[in-house]
């Protein structure tokens, strides 16, 4: 029953697909207006890529024949700048994730077609083949590898956000979380890490409170009002929110960082496909082509994410362990 409900919800979200925008193709070349409609979150930069036939030939036949790469984005209900959100035209999906997907589609000689949904329904889209690949700040984890293949493209760093007036700072030791009220996105890897820290603290006779809100905007209001002490989320989104708050009555600060793969491994963000679909290799090859030819760095620079650069895209690299140890 639950799967049926989710599937219906996914169909409903497809009507909310943003315009493809920002990408123009001609004569085997695609020009992407990276950072277009971003409301100042990026420095708009035009990047042109050519179709690479050797990589395109590895794309599954059904996708090549369709001429379209169906791309999942989990930006409902309100998105998460600068990663994924609706642009200033109120319809086009923008953000660092969708712009990289547009560039990858150009290398593969395919038209990008975005399907925007909630985070949970994005994975339902992959499972049901409504989506070929998702570019949506998805962390490579060992649990997710049971169902999905990954082509990494960015470091995954997490960050704590708090009011500047709050003296609390996360030092890397989970014990510093004792007594805190913390918000986190439901179903995310950062939630998994928090819950494991909470389990450890409880075994030591201490605890903290985890609170959930429908979107990052609601979490920001909860910080402002004192309902929570801190928010844990992807570093790019946290840094964006901190920058936006500086001239407000409630300026925020960076209150600590952590790898998205836990204590012993650098986390990685990856393009995500259904396991054994045959698409992950050409995706990794396309990302590595962008790296080798400088367009990847241009993309990072435009979105101010250079600190999260990787040297190469890897297929199914080590991810967040089944237990965060």
From TrEMBL:
Keyword Iron: no
Keywords: Signal
Domain Solute-binding protein family 3/N-terminal: 70-307
Cross-referenced Pfam families: SBP_bac_3
UniProt-listed PROSITE patterns: PROKAR_LIPOPROTEIN
InterPro entries tied to this protein: Solute-binding_3/MltF_N
Transmembrane segments: none
Signal sequence, start to end: 1-23
Listed SMART domains: PBPb
Protein name: Transporter substrate-binding domain-containing protein
Organism listed in the record: Kibdelosporangium philippinense
């Amino acid at each position: 029953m639950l799967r049926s409900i989710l599937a219906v919800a996914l169909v409903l979200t497809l009507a909310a697909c943003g315009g493809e925008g920002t990408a123009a193709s001609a004569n085997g070349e695609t020009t992407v207006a990276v950072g277009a409609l971003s409301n100042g979150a990026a420095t708009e930069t035009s990047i042109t890529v050519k179709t690479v036939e050797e990589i395109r030939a590895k794309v599954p036949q059904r996708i090549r024949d369709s001429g379209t790469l169906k791309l999942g984005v989990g930006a409902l209900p309100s998105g998460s700048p600068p990663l994924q959100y609706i642009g200033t035209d109120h319809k086009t999906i923008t953000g660092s994730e969708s712009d990289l997907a547009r560039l990858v589609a150009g290398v593969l000689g395919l038209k990008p077609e975005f399907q925007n949904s909630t985070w949970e329904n994005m994975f339902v889209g992959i499972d049901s083949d409504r989506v070929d690949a998702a570019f949506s700040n998805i962390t490579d984890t060992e649990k997710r590898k049971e169902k999905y293949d990954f082509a990494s493209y960015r470091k995954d760093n997490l960050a704590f956000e708090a009011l500047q007036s709050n003296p609390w700072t996360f030092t890397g030791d989970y014990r510093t979380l004792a007594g805190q009220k913390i918000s986190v996105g439901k179903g995310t890897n950062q939630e998994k890490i928090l819950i494991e820290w909470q389990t450890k603290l409880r075994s030591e006779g201490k605890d903290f409170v985890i609170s959930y809100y429908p979107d990052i905007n609601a979490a920001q209001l909860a910080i402002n009002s004192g309902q929570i002490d801190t928010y844990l989320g992807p570093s790019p989104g946290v840094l964006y929110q901190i920058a936006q708050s500086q001239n407000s009555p409630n300026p925020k600060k960076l209150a600590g960082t952590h790898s998205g793969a836990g204590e012993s491994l650098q986390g990685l963000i990856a393009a995500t496909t259904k396991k054994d679909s045959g698409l992950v290799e050409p995706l990794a090859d396309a990302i590595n082509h962008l790296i080798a030819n400088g367009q990847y760095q241009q993309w990072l620079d435009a979105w101010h994410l250079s600190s999260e650069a990787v040297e190469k895209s890897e297929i199914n690299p080590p991810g967040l362990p089944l237990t965060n140890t």
